[in-house]
Structure prediction request, 473 residues.
Amino acid sequence: MPYQNFAGSFERASKTSHADIVRNPDVSDFLSECEHLRPPSPEEGAELAERFLEPPHLDGVVLPSKVMAVDGSATERSIDDQLPSTKVGYVKVSATLIDMAQFNDLRVHDGRFVDPCRVAALENNNSSLTFALPSANVRWRGMQTVRQSFRAYLDACLYGTNTRFKPDDPATSLRTTLFHLAHRRPNDMATSSAAELRLHRCPNDGCEARNLLIRDVPDQQHCPRCNGPVFPSDCLRIWEAVEEFQANGEAINRAMNTIEHLMPIHYIRYLADNSLASLGTTAFFVDGPLAVFGNSAWLHGSIMRFTSEINDRLTAARLPRILMIGLQKTGAVVDHAGLLSRFLPDNRVFCIDDAYRYRYILSGREEAGNGFGYESYYGQDFIFKTESGRVFVFGIPYTFPTKHPEGVDFRSAKAEMARYESLPQALALIQHFESDLYQNAVIPIALAHRYTAISLVPGGRVLDVLTQRGLSR
Ligand SMILES: [Zn+2]
Prediction:
């Protein structure tokens, strides 16, 4: 990643004296009283391994002809060494298209074709969406506060021509994709069409106005009560975490995370409207669980509804459903899978149910009332040990439009492996890329080791690239 992670420098600094701290008797007493993830005993390991199943046969599974991988990074920097408390955030989100078909015949005998120049170009690519966000002590274009500046600039970025599939058509902007999601919110946050969305309250200081209707128009809109500026992307509520005089790592990371999950939906929306057939042969890789956390977590519900509607259209056209994979490289499930790995036979898959998760992964934490991930997840987590013994944790989208499907208990249904039609394709794809995915934390770079990658910004010739090759076969 071109940018350093927020946690990076902190972790390095804290490791030096860690051993001394743990030897302190008070600390070791405390640690002995804490519940946390620990290696399973041999009996437990054998018992858990029993629950893993042999995956369906993957021999005849057709791989998608194109894979799009979305990858984000974020950082916050002082604007100048002499002004350490004046900060700007940087968010970079790139979408990379891996063409699985075009260069098949260029592969060498062992099935691997690596073009180091292309991989290097990808690592250094500057064509991804890069946003600078106002942070501590920085105001933008006459805005009154850092928070207002952050809101205004984030909105301008999402509306920007470089997020549009057609630069002169604002309806193809990332911001309009946000309208399509926000319009699908339930109950009193819903709107009659994607031309409008609702803000739960006015974001301007001291204003109490609630449930504001915002239109998808280029003009600046104002709160009817305080007359302060309001922006469509205020609905993401990332601004709530923005501080005037302090570092804004949380808000900047949230912005990145949110855009990472908006991007696949942005492409899916465009392809669904312009080339449904192309969508049916494209897979999407996202970094991390299929979940949106924090104040914009409501997006997860809209993503479920939106993808479900598109899936209905794909099914009606006899095309495969949307294949989206959230690959996890860190986190409690990955740690758990690592501890369990030596007890698992090769070629096993497990669909993590809530009872298992709360007992073995979340170390006895009390089960949430509506089940794990109710407020944030739009996909189900799986643990997969491949035929060659590598362990992966990944998510694929739930198969329901909401978490309250009629006549079905969502909490148990979500963990029924047979419901996931796209699972064999997901497993086959992960197995296909496994050695590169295993070694490389950055998914597009991992995939690019095997195939040619095309870095995409929406404003580029995305549709040409996605469809013409699709049509030529
Ligand atoms: Zn107001």
